[in-house]
Amino acid sequence: MSAAVYFEIVRLCQRHADRLQWSMKAMETHLPFTSESLNHLTDIEVAILDQFSTRFARLQDMMGMKLFPVVLELTKEPGELDVFVDKLNRLEKIGAIPSTDRWLVLREMRNIFSHEYPDDPEIQAAILNKAFKLADELIETFNALKVFSGRYA
Questions:
Q1: Number of C-alpha atoms within 13 angstroms, CB side, residue 30?
Q2: Quick one: average pLDDT of 36-51?
Q3: What gap in Å lies between CA 62 and CA 65, rounded to an integer?
Q4: d(CA 42, CA 26)
Q5: Which class in CATH covers the domain with range 3-150?
Q6: Domain-wise residue ranges, the chain
Q7: Which of 44, 62, 117, 136 lies most in the core, judged by the most C-beta atoms within 10 Å?
Q8: What is the pTM for the complete model shown?
Q9: Are residues 35 and 122 in contact, defined by beta-carbon separation less than 8 angstroms?
C-alpha cells in the first residue's frame, strides 16, 4: 500500500468530515431538536439535515471500509484479520481508535441513517439529537486516527 493511497483516503474522509461539520454548524441553533422544531424547518434546513446524515454515513463507511485497513497495513500489524471486529480490536489495542464498542455505536447510527427515518417526528428528533452528539465523536475519532497513522505514512 502506497502512501499516496493512504493520503487520498484521508483526503476523502476529510471532505466528508468538513461537510459534516458544516451541516452541524448550520443547524446548531435548532438543537436540541423536538418534534415541533422539525415540523417548522424550511426546505433548505431539511436539505442540510439530509447533508448531515449522508456525510455522517459516508465518513463512517469510508473510515471502516478504507481507512482502517490501510492504517493496519501501514502499522504492519501482524496476523490475518478477516473479521471486522478483529480489525477494530487490533486498532483499539494499538491506540488508533479509542474503543471498539464506541465504533460499533457509531456504526449503529450509520445503519439508522441508511434506512428511512420513521414518520414519527418525536423519534426523528431523538435520533437526530443522538446523532449530533455522535457526529462529534466520529470527527474526533477521525482526527485522532489521522494523528496516529500520520506517524507511519
A1: 23
A2: 96
A3: 5
A4: 13
A5: mainly alpha
A6: 3-150
A7: 62
A8: 0.94
A9: yes
